[in-house]
């Protein structure tokens, strides 16, 4: 079953002014420890929200708009148990060895045993590659941002900024044939994803990322039932409905 996260009553307190904790912040107003959900996995988020009645924390709007899958515990089936038991018996029982006389096939002594083939390795020269250097910083504080993911959309070409917020992206000129412009995407936890169009003449990129509009508050899980579960839930009385539907 899938689920989504919701914050029915968002909080307007300032996250940056709260006291730091190992898992997030501590709010003096409501005497609660807030969890920073922005860097957590789907399973970790589900475990935290599902096992606690009220979990308050900070989360991005993209996380609230995403669908999560409830982790299912795999059960060891009876068939698997039977197969494992049969394999164990087969391993324990003694096996009689069968010996056969090996007769090598006749080979042509003039034919080499190994045939070596030379593979031509194509290496792209500096003339065939465009090198783009850039710097990524915070749009509010102007601080340099390390470990920002820089992607060339539509390809597997990606790099990350160093401790000084700098990166070097190497792009083959062949990628600019169609289309003429390429899209470079910048992703960093807690910041809005931004895109920049580049062409063959682009050599440097200087970009400032904006903090994402995160939300604070108590989070709840809203389950999204399957078609079968929706069918049976349809015949329940309104007060006995099992699922809360989100649209």
Key words describing this protein structure:
single chain; 247 residues; alpha+beta; Immunoglobulin-like; seven-stranded mixed beta sheet; four-stranded antiparallel beta sheet; flat
Topology:
Layout: E1 2-6, E2 19-20, E3 24-27, E4 32-36, H1 42-51, E5 55-59, H2 61-65, E6 68-69, H3 78-92, E7 129-138, E8 149-152, E9 158-160, E10 166-172, E11 182-187, E12 194-198, E13 204-209, E14 215-224, H4 227-234
Parallel strand pairs: 4-5, 7-13
Antiparallel strand pairs: 1-6, 1-14, 2-3, 3-4, 5-14, 7-10, 8-9, 8-11, 11-12
First-residue to last-residue Cα separation: 16 Å
Oligomer: single chain
Q: What is the count of helical runs?
A: 4
Radius of gyration: 29 Å
Strand order of the largest sheet: 2-3-4-5-14-1-6
Give the percentage of residues in beta strands.
25-35%
Shape estimate? flat
Q: Spans with pLDDT under 50 lasting ≥5 residues?
A: 111-122
Helical proportion?
10-25%
Encode the helix/strand succession as letters: EEEEHEHEHEEEEEEEEH
Overall pLDDT level: 75
Category from helices, strands and their pairing: alpha+beta
How many E strands?
A: 14
Reported for the largest beta sheet, the result is: 7 strands, mixed
């Amino acid at each position: 079953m899938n689920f989504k996260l919701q914050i029915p009553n968002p909080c307007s307190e300032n996250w940056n002014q709260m006291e730091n904790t190992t898992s997030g912040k501590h709010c003096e107003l409501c005497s609660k420890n807030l969890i920073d959900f922005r860097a957590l996995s789907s399973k970790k988020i589900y475990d935290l929200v599902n096992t606690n009645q009220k979990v308050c924390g900070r989360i991005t709007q993209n996380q609230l708009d995403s669908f999560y899958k409830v982790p299912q515990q795999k059960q060891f089936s009876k068939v698997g148990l039977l197969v494992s038991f049969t394999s164990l018996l087969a391993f324990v029982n003694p096996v009689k060895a069968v010996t056969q006389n090996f007769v090598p096939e006749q080979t042509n002594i003039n034919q080499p045993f190994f045939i070596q083939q030379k593979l031509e390795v194509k290496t792209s020269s500096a003339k065939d590659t465009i090198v783009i250097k850039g710097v990524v910083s915070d749009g509010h504080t102007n601080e340099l941002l390390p470990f920002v993911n820089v992607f060339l959309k539509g390809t597997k070409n990606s790099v990350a900024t160093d401790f000084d917020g700098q990166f070097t992206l190497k792009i083959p000129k062949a990628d600019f044939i169609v289309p003429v412009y390429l899209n470079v995407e910048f992703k960093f936890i807690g910041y809005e994803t931004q895109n920049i169009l580049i062409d063959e003449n682009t050599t440097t990129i200087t970009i400032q990322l904006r903090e994402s509009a995160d939300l604070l508050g108590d989070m709840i899980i809203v389950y999204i039932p399957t078609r079968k579960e929706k069918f049976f839930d349809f015949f329940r009385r309104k007060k006995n409905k099992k699922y809360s539907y989100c649209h």
